[in-house]
Amino acid sequence: MSRILTYREALREGLDEELARDPNVVLMGEEVAQYNGAYKVTEGLWNKWGDKRIVDTPISEAGFIGMGIGASMLGVRPVMELMFWSFHSVAFDQLVSNAACVRYMSGGLCNCPIVVRGPANGGTGVGATHSHIPEGMFAAFPGLKVCVPATPADAKGLIKAAIRDNDPVYFMENTLLYGTTGEVPDVADGDHVVPLGVADVKREGSDISLIAHGRSVIHSLAAAEILQSEHGINAEVLDLRSIRPLDVDAILKTVRKTNRVVLVDESKPFGGVSAMVAMLIQEQAFDYLDAPIKRVCSIDAPAIYSPHIEHEQLPNPRRIVEKVLGMR
Amino acid sequence: MISASPTPLDFASSPINQSLTPQRKIELYTQMVRIRRFEQAALKFYNAGKMAGFLHLYIGQESVAVGTISLGGADDHFITAYRDHGHALAVGMGMNECMAEMFGKQTGCSKGKGGSMHFFAPDKNFWGGHGIVAGQTPLGLGLAYGLKYLGREGCCLCYLGDGAVNQGAFHESLNIAALFGIPVVYVIENNGYSMGTSQKRSSAYNGCLAQRAEAYGIEWDVVNGSDVYEVRAKAHIAMERARKEHKPTVLEIDTYRYYGHSVADANHKKYRTPEEIENYKNNHDPIMVFERKLLEEGVLNDDLVKSINDAAKTEAAASAKFAEESPAPTIADISTDVYWESDNNTPASQIGQHFFND
Ligand SMILES: Cc1ncc(C[n+]2csc(CCOP(=O)(O)OP(=O)(O)O)c2C)c(N)n1
C-alpha cells in the first residue's frame, strides 16, 4: 500500500521516524524549531520533540555546521538545515576541510555521521546569491556523500538512509518540489529506506536515455511524454538520486540499451555532474554510442533574477525536446 | 575612551541639525515618505504577481537610511544587505529604475538581473544590495580601505541587521578595521528580529549589540531610530571620526519593521504580538515623530504634509507603470555582464573561451 504525500511531508515523515528510532538524532538550523522551518519541512517537529531534539541556531553557518560536525565525531547524529544550500559558502571550510577530511586524516579513527540538508536550486526568482546548485561541486570532494531526491518517495527513503549513514551526507532538496506530490510506501508496510548510490529508472524507454537528477528528472519525464506523443521517440529516464556514491552500472546499462544520451543537469555546464557522467560514459561505454553525448544545463552565467526569462536559463522540457530532436 | 555617547538631550539642537535649513528638513521628510510610499506600491504589485522572489520591506526603518545618508559627502560610500530599497532611494536612485528592477525589466538599475535584493548605483556611491547575511560587512571594510588607500577623505557606511552580527565575517571585519585604522562605520539596524528569531534568542550578550565593538577597541554608540535628528547627530560623530582619524565605529540603531521579514513571512504576527507592532506604529514611527516635530517647528503644515504624501504616491504609481511598460531582458541578455572582455569585445575576449553553452 502507499499514500500520496508531498515531497515536504515525505521528508518530514522520514525525519520524524528517525528522531523516534534513534535518540541521538538532533535537528538544527535557522528557524527549524519555533518558526517551523523557513520552508516548513520541520513543521510540528519542535512541538513534538521539544528543545533538546529540534534546535534553532543564530545565523552563524560556519559556527553551527562546524558544531554539528564536532558533535557527530562524538556519536551525536545531527541533521543540520541550511535555509538555502546557497549559504554553504559561509560554512565552506567546515563542509569541505573538516567533514570531508576528518575520517581520512585520522586514519579512520574519527567518523562524521552528519547530514546537512536544505534546498539547492534555481528557478525561484531570488537572484544570483540565492540560486547556487552545488551538488557537483561537493561531489568533487572525496569523503562526502551527496544525494538529490526528485520524488516524495525518494525524499523520504534517502533522508532515512542519509541519517543512518556513518559518513557526512549532503542532502539537496528543491524548493520547487516541496509542494509536489507522489506515492510514498505505507508506514505500516515497514521501513522505507532508499540506499545511497542506487539510481532509478523512472521511465523505461528504448530510443534515448535522459539522465538527470533532482527537478531535472521531472522535466525529463515531461519531455519524454512530448517526445513519445509528438515524435514517436521512446525515451528512458534515469534518475541518479545519489551523485556520490554514483550508480555507474545503471548509467552504463541505460547507455548500452538506448545508445544515445542527453544529460539534464540544472547546474552550469563547466564541471559538475553532467560533465563527470559524460566522461564516465565515454571512458566506459564509448563503443555503445550512436551519437555524441549531449547536455541540457543552465545557461553559463550567474542566475538571472528576471522572472521573465529565468526559466529559460534553466533546463525545461522544451529545451530537452529540442536537444533530442537536434540529435537525429 | 570607549563609551556610549553622553546623553545630549535635544538632538534637534546639535550642531549638525542646527545647520539644517527648513528646506533641507522638508527634503529629509520627503525622502522618508517617498521610501514608504514606494514600498507600499511595491507590495501591491508584488501581491499582484508582478515580481518574483523575495520582497524585504524597509517600512518602519526609514529614518536610518535617510538620517545617515543625508550626512554623506562626495567621498562617502554606502553598502547594505538585501533590505535595500530605503538606502537606494536615499542615495538618490530613481523610483523608476528601482521598481523596474523588481519587475525584472531591462530598464531596472541592474537590468533585471539582480532583483529587489540587489540594487546598485556606484555612480551614487551605493555599492548594493547583498544577499548573504553579513556578506557585505567585509566589502564595506574594503570600500573604506580603498578610500584611505586612494587618499580620499571619506568614509563607508556599512549597514547590517541584528541577526548579521553573529556571523564570523562581521567579527573578522571589526578586527581588521581596528587593526588597520579603516574609516568604516558599521550601522546595525536593530529591528529586534532576524526572520522569526528575536535578538534575545540569537545573541548571547544582550547588553547591546554595538558593545561587542569593545572587544576590538572600537568606539560604539546606541541610537534611537525613531528620531532622525538623533540618528544624524550620532552618525555624524562616527563619520567624522572615520574621515578625520581613520577610526571605525559601530552604531546600533534601534528601529522596527512593521511587515514580516519578507512578504512571504506569514508568521510575523506569531513571533511578535500585534500589540508590539501597533505600539511601534503608534508611538515610535520615525515619519510620524519627525512630522510632528516639523509641524511644531512650523517647518511643515498640514497642506504640505498632504501634498508631499500625494506626490510620493503618484510618483510610485508612475514608476510601476514605467516598469510594467518596460521590456523584459532577452535570452541573449543572460550571457552579458558576466565578463568584461566579452561585453566589450576586446582582443582578450578572442583568446580562450568564456562560455560553455553549446
Ligand atoms: C548566510 C545567510 N544565512 C541565512 C540567510 C537567510 N536569511 C536572510 S535574511 C535573514 C535574517 C537576517 O536578519 P537581520 O540580520 O536581523 O536583518 P533584517 O532582516 O532584520 O534586516 C536570514 C536568516 C542568508 N541570506 N544568508
UniProtKB/TrEMBL annotation, chain A:
Its cofactor is thiamine diphosphate. Residues 5-180 form the Transketolase-like pyrimidine-binding domain. GO terms for molecular function: oxidoreductase activity. The keyword Oxidoreductase applies. SUPFAM superfamilies: Thiamin diphosphate-binding fold (THDP-binding), TK C-terminal domain-like. The keyword Oxidoreductase applies. It comes from the Bacteria. Keywords: Oxidoreductase, Thiamine pyrophosphate. This is Alpha-ketoacid dehydrogenase subunit beta. The lineage of its organism: Bacteria, Pseudomonadati, Verrucomicrobiota, Verrucomicrobiia, Verrucomicrobiales.
UniProtKB/TrEMBL annotation, chain B:
GO terms for molecular function: pyruvate dehydrogenase (acetyl-transferring) activity. Its EC number is 1.2.4.1. Keywords: Oxidoreductase, Pyruvate, Thiamine pyrophosphate. GO terms for biological process: pyruvate decarboxylation to acetyl-CoA. InterPro entries: DH_E1, PDH_E1_Alpha_Subunit, Pyrv_DH_E1_asu_subgrp-y, THDP-binding. Residues 31-331 form the Dehydrogenase E1 component domain. Pfam families: E1_dh. Gene3D superfamilies: 3.40.50.970. It catalyses: N(6)-[(R)-lipoyl]-L-lysyl-[protein] + pyruvate + H(+) = N(6)-[(R)-S(8)-acetyldihydrolipoyl]-L-lysyl-[protein] + CO2. The keyword Coiled coil does not apply. Its cofactor is thiamine diphosphate. The pyruvate dehydrogenase complex catalyzes the overall conversion of pyruvate to acetyl-CoA and CO(2). Heterodimer of an alpha and a beta chain. This is Pyruvate dehydrogenase E1 component subunit alpha. The lineage of its organism: Bacteria, Pseudomonadati, Verrucomicrobiota, Verrucomicrobiia, Verrucomicrobiales.
